[in-house]
Amino acid sequence: MLALHEPTIPMVLKPGVDVRRYELRIRELETEILNFRTALVCSFNQLLDLRDLNTGVHSTRLAEWGLRVARDLGVPETCMSDLEMGALLHDIGKIGVPDHILNKPGRLTPEEYEVVKRHPEFGWTVIRNLPGMEQTSLYVLHHHENFDGTGYPARLQGAEIPIGSRIVSVIDAFDAMVSSRPYRDGMPVDEALRRLVEASGTQFDPAVIESFVSIAKTEMPSVLAAVGSSS
Ligand SMILES: [Fe+2]
Ligand SMILES: [Fe+2]
User: Fold this and answer.
1) 3-state DSSP call for residue 200?
2) Which ligand ends up closest to the CA of 66?
3) What CATH number should be reported for the domain holding residue 51?
4) Number of domains in the chain
5) What is the distance of C-alpha 138 from the center of its chain?
6) What separation in Å is there between the alpha carbon of 150 and the centre of ligand 2?
7) pTM score, two decimals?
8) Is 7 within a domain?
9) CA of 213 to the centre of ligand 1 (A)
10) 147 and 173 in contact (C-beta within 8 Å)?
11) Looking at the domain assignment, is residue 176 inside a domain?
12) What is the dihedral of CA 137, 141, 146, 148, to 10 degrees?
């Protein structure tokens, strides 16, 4: 972080002052802020892992695939850091869901499901006050909206839903379908992709589905072979 002996950057530079010296210092400070933010996000992610063991790894996979889809869709590079953090922190609000609901192996009651449905809002509350993470907090808040307006918490539809949330939503669903749980085996990749396509335009953004399905079909066999999965 900022050391006391570092030069203070004046609000207005006098003529003849070496601007490059200050440009370098500004770049250093920007890097320090970025590093601090990255460390904070990793710590939050580890914190969530302590509550729910599957979530940390799931979020890391989401961030990797999310960035690939975003680049494929031409999302501006300036949005990538917000998107990565949004994917990593999308379920941070699950910390606010009691253990007996979060870890319940069977079907949730309607009342329990209502509590789970509050996790995007809980996550948004945690992140929104952190400087520079306002956009990330919105990606988290809206990651369970549906493209046709039937999702939660705000029932946004189409382009009203932030692009980061639309991307996270698709990969989140895919990862949940193919991952094994103590009480069920993960679904084969082909079947999971078929279900995503089926929900294109209703639950999911068709452009995101098209991009993710094509990337997954090309790259998933080699990814699965590398981890030794039979899915
Ligand atoms: Fe979620
Ligand atoms: Fe998730």
Assistant:
1) strand
2) 2
3) 1.10.3210.10
4) 1
5) 11
6) 18
7) 0.84
8) no
9) 21
10) no
11) yes
12) -80
Q: Which of 151, 185, 184 is nearest to 168 (CA)?
A: 151
In a domain, 12, yes or no: no
Determine the Cα–Cα distance for residues 128 and 145; give it in Å rounded to an integer: 18
Ligand nearest to the CA of 45: 2
Q: Which structural domain range is residue 119 located in? A: 19-227
What's the 1 CA to ligand 2 centre distance in angstroms? 32
- Which ligand sits closest to the CA of 58? 2
Q: What is the pLDDT along the chain (231 residues), one digit of tens a residue?
A: 444 455 566 667 677 777 787 888 888 998 998 888 889 998 998 888 887 766 777 888 899 999 999 999 999 998 999 999 999 999 999 999 998 998 888 889 999 999 999 999 999 999 998 988 999 999 999 999 999 999 999 999 999 999 999 999 999 999 999 988 777 888 998 999 999 999 999 999 999 999 999 999 887 766 655 544 433
Asked if the structure places residue 223 within a domain, the reply is yes
Closest ligand to 61 CA?
A: 2
